[in-house]
């Protein structure tokens, strides 16, 4: 547990130092409107730091495209576990989360890496 806690703090410091400001928008499904047939969304926006990278050509697959981006954030900076239903806003551009990967130590998430598509 002590190692995981130390790694989480270190990850947060490094991402804060080398990352840029991003907004992670957590989306929760709301109520179903029977008259319109739509489901309302409830969103919560959290501004944190993240390190943005491009996708290398060897990472391109059926799911990941060459135009996608990779965003790394510290897990302790998030208030909820991210999912592909959530979105990320970077410099005013809204990105869809295509994949969510995590790096763990002792069952504690240290960092999340998102594959993003604008």
What does this structure look like?
It is a single chain. 14% of the residues lie in helices and 54% in strands. It is mainly β and 118 residues long. The protein has a 6-stranded antiparallel β-barrel with strand order 1-2-3-6-5-4. The longest helix is centred in the first third of the chain and has 17 residues, at 2-18.
Name some characteristics of this structure:
14% helix; mainly beta; 6-stranded antiparallel beta barrel; 118 residues; single chain; 1 helix
Q: Please provide the ordered H/E string of secondary-structure elements.
A: HEEEEEE
Class by SSE composition: mainly beta
- Percent helix, as a range, is 10-25%
Distance between the termini: 37 Å
Got a strand count?
Answer: 6
Radius of gyration: 16 Å
Task: Return the average pLDDT rounded to an integer.
Answer: 93
Largest sheet: 6 strands, antiparallel, barrel
Low confidence ranges: none
- Per DSSP, what share of the residues sits in E-state strands of 2 or more residues? over 45%
| Order of strands in the sheet with most strands | 1-2-3-6-5-4
Global shape: globular
- DSSP helical segment count: 1
Outline of this structure?
With 118 residues, this protein is mostly beta strands. The protein is 14% helix and 54% strand.
What order do the helices and strands come in, and which of them pair?
Layout: H1 2-18, E1 20-33, E2 38-54, E3 69-74, E4 87-90, E5 93-105, E6 108-117
Antiparallel strand pairs: 1-2, 1-4, 2-3, 3-6, 4-5, 5-6
């Amino acid at each position: 547990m002590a190692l995981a806690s130390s790694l989480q703090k270190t990850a947060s410091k490094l991402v804060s130092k080398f990352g840029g400001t991003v907004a992670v928008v957590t989306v929760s499904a709301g109520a179903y409107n029977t008259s319109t047939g739509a489901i309302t969304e409830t969103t919560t926006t959290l501004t944190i730091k993240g390190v943005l990278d491009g996708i290398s050509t060897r990472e391109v697959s059926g799911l990941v495209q060459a135009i996608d981006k990779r965003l790394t954030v510290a897990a302790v900076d998030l208030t909820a576990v991210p999912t592909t239903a959530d979105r990320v806003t970077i410099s005013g551009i809204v990105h869809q989360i295509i994949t969510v990967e995590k790096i763990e130590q002792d069952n504690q998430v240290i960092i999340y890496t998102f594959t993003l598509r604008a």
